[in-house]
Design brief:
The complex is a heterodimer of chains A (about 180) and B (about 140). By secondary structure, chain A is an all-alpha fold. Chain A is about 65% helix and about 0% strand. In chain B, α2 crosses α6. The chains are: A mainly alpha (about 180), B mainly alpha (about 140).
Chain lengths: ~180, ~140
């Protein structure tokens, strides 16, 4: 990744430093994934229960960071942990988010382009503070740790955290 | 501010952590160094390889210090006073790293206690670790 990319995403804080050995302009802006990282992502993804992971992750965001409930006023009762966990709209929305994550995983070399429309949607229509992408990334990591136990090793966690940072950067791209 | 339920959750979860402070503390640090390699700068003279005795021992120390406050959350400033001084005047660890380690501790808890680490427990612990971080950076400036 080039300097432009690092500066672009620096406010999100957790993006790891990557080797800058790409000579062309296009490849300077590509995210570089090692084979191990790709393997870590696809092997976990193959076993993820998409609906359950999405439900866990979104429920945790709404419970642990209650101010995020501001975005879900049309979802009915999201005012306490029990209501949130039992809310069908929260469950459906969590699933939708993780299904969309699958698109990024299928297009690891071009997440920005894959998410261009979604980014516009979140900034122009939904007016979501991009900090929320980071929070959901964290709770998804925690949900995966709970589902996979020992299989969710530190190296696998690192690959997934990088994925979350890339997804966060892509979703934040169209904000201005 | 902790509700009575949150205090109880923190105490009951911590009871399950207590027999594993070395193993889980070591794991939290290993995750920290793997996911956020920049944190290793604070451990230049320590063997940070996975499973190292130094890291297990340090992880144990960190978890026990956190645990020392679990039963008396309203008096963290007193309980952690000397650690607060240490971090402010000697270690000067950038406070952003407290968030990174807290996240890794939450991952370890979810990993080993999947049924106990409910969203409510997660909330209580997120607040708890943020409280510890706040006390540790209390005297920074």
């Amino acid at each position: 990744m080039g300097m432009a990319e690092v500066m672009d995403t620096s406010i999100f804080g957790l993006l790891p430093q990557l080797p800058n050995d790409q000579p062309t302009n296009q490849t300077l802006t590509m995210v570089h994934w090692t084979d191990e990282e790709r393997q870590a992502i696809t092997s976990i993804w193959a076993e993820v229960n998409v609906e359950e992971a999405g439900h866990q992750a979104l429920t945790r965001v709404l419970v642990v960071y209650p101010w995020t409930q501001r975005y879900f006023s049309t979802f009915g009762n999201v005012s306490n942990a029990t209501a949130i966990a039992g809310n069908h709209m929260v469950r459906a929305h969590g699933k939708r988010v993780v299904v969309a994550l699958g698109d990024a995983i299928k297009n690891l070399d071009n997440v920005k382009a894959t998410y261009a429309k979604l980014s516009e949607l979140h900034s122009e229509k939904l007016h979501v503070d991009p900090e929320n992408f980071r929070l959901l990334g964290e709770t998804l990591i925690i949900s995966l740790a709970a589902q996979f136990g020992a299989a969710f090793t530190p190296d696998i966690q690192a690959a997934w955290q990088k994925l979350m940072a890339v997804v966060t950067a892509a979703l934040s791209k169209q904000y201005y | 501010m902790y509700s009575a339920t949150e205090k109880a959750l923190i105490v009951s979860i911590w009871e399950k952590v207590t027999p594993h402070t070395e193993e889980w503390g070591g794991e939290a640090l290993e995750r920290l160094f793997t996911v956020f390699p920049q944190t290793k700068i604070y451990f230049k003279h320590v063997d940070t390889s996975p499973g190292s005795a130094a890291i297990r021992s340090h992880g144990d120390k960190v978890m026990k210090a956190i645990g020392s406050t679990a039963g008396d959350l309203d008096n963290m400033l007193t309980t952690l006073s000397s650690l607060s001084n240490l971090h402010a005047y000697n270690l000067m660890v950038d406070p952003v790293n407290f968030k990174l380690l807290s996240h890794c501790i939450l991952v370890v808890l979810a990993n080993h206690l999947p049924s106990e680490f409910t969203p409510e427990a997660h909330l209580a612990f997120d607040k708890f670790l943020a409280g510890v971080a706040s006390v540790l950076s209390h005297k920074y400036r």
